[in-house]
């Protein structure tokens, strides 16, 4: 009831004040008719406050996002489900959901009446051109009586998160060699291929599955023996993203940094779908990706990556060197000098394929393509160490130049499109 009285509108307070004044005057003048009128006028906002306050705690809300992840520039649908869990119908409901300004204006709706046990569903769309994780909610509901005497606001606590990922474009298939690695007990032996008699068992270790016990070898050796695990092969690679602010040009969704993030996302998803075990590295060092759902884990991380204040790729190069076992290194790079390019180039040796996606950042300033001496020097250094060069200027999609990753750096310099 106190909440209802605090929620009186200007009209409700005027009614209440007028009713009280009429009651006082009726008492002083001894007018019974005025007393009845004053009692009715004063009671009306009180009754409205009581009804609205009762309704306040009898609403439930749920929210659904479709999809929960949307690409930058794409749309997502938010569905609100509001249920009246009482046996009484509600009055007028004014609904407002909370969304960040980057997703658009706050959606507002009016529900005239929700019957007892009734359910209403409301849809609205959100859109963002900027990557990120955006909270949606909480929902606030303003409950008003039919006479406009009371207006009570309730805020639900439930919130949801919309993940806006970088734009991902489909890339053409390019043959990229890599080192095949794995983590089982045996690299070459398969029980299914070799047969039970040719199995190479080992002694039982605590925690081994008893279904792997090899009874013939157990009888022969006099101790419990188990079959070795078949090697699980997987190609491994690393994706380096240059996030240094000073290495990029432009602002907003069309900046070279956003293009680099989108290119890294497209390449990462493409390689993950081809079965590559991928790790993500930036100029700040290694980034953690979950083992399950590699594509989604990569996109979730890239959705929130921001430009760094670093001036060097040293930490990123060190992380690549320390990781080891990579058969493929793909580096998405902004502006860098010949010395930085040389440190990175030395990571490539026999058995490792290196692909450098070089953003020609000068083209974001309106300069002629490949006009910068630094760009040419970096290209020459990387190609000299056998890196494959993919040049990415402003206004060009990574999909249209990705086929250059199939060409060796020396070939590219001598006449290829890179």
TrEMBL record:
Q: Does the keyword Repeat apply?
A: no
Checking Pfam families in the record gives: DUF58
**Transmembrane ranges?**
12-29, 35-53
Question: What InterPro entries does the database record attribute to this sequence?
Answer: DUF58 (IPR002881)
UniProt keywords, alphabetically: Membrane, Transmembrane, Transmembrane helix
User: Can you give the residue ranges of the DUF58 domain?
Assistant: 202-283
**Entry protein name:** DUF58 domain-containing protein
């Amino acid at each position: 009831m106190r909440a209802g009285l605090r929620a009186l509108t200007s009209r409700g307070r005027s009614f209440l004040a007028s009713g009280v004044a009429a009651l006082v005057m009726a008492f002083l003048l001894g007018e019974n008719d005025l007393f009845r009128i004053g009692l009715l006028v004063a009671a009306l906002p009180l009754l409205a406050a009581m009804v609205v306050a009762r309704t306040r705690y009898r609403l439930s809300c749920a929210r659904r996002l479709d999809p929960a992840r949307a690409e930058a520039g794409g749309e997502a649908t938010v569905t609100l489900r509001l249920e009246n869990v009482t046996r009484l119908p509600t009055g007028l409901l004014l609904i407002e959901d909370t969304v960040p300004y980057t997703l658009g204006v706050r959606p507002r709706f009016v529900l005239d009446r929700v019957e007892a046990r009734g359910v209403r569903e409301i849809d609205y769309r959100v859109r963002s051109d900027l990557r990120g994780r955006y909270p949606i909610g909480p929902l606030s509901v303003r409950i008003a009586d039919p006479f406009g005497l009371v207006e009570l606001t309730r805020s639900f606590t439930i919130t949801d998160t919309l993940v806006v990922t970088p734009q991902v474009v489909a890339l053409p298939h390019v043959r990229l060699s890599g080192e095949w690695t794995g983590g089982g007990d045996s690299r070459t032996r398969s029980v299914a291929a070799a047969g039970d008699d040719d199995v190479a068992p080992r002694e039982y270790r605590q925690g081994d599955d008893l279904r792997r016990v090899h009874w013939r070898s157990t009888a022969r050796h006099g101790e419990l023996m188990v079959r070795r695990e078949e090697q699980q092969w997987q190609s491994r690679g690393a994706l380096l993203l240059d996030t240094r602010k000073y290495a990029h040009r432009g602002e907003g969704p069309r900046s070279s940094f956003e293009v680099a993030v989108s290119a890294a996302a497209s390449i990462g998803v493409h390689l993950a779908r081809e079965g590559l075990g991928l790790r993500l590295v930036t100029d700040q060092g290694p980034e953690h990706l979950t083992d399950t759902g590699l594509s989604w884990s990569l996109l979730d991380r890239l959705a929130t990556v921001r430009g760094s204040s670093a001036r060097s790729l040293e930490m990123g190069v060190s992380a690549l060197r320390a990781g080891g076992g990579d058969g493929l290194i793909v580096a998405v790079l902004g502006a860098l000098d010949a010395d930085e390019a040389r440190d990175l180039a030395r990571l490539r040796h026999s058995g490792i394929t290196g692909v450098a996606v070089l953003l020609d950042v000068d083209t974001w300033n309106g300069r002629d393509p490949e006009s910068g001496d630094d760009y040419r020097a970096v290209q020459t250094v990387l190609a000299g160490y056998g890196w494959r060069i993919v040049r990415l200027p402003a206004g060009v999609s990574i999909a249209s130049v990705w086929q250059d990753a199939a060409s060796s750096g020396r070939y590219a310099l001598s006449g290829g499109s890179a």
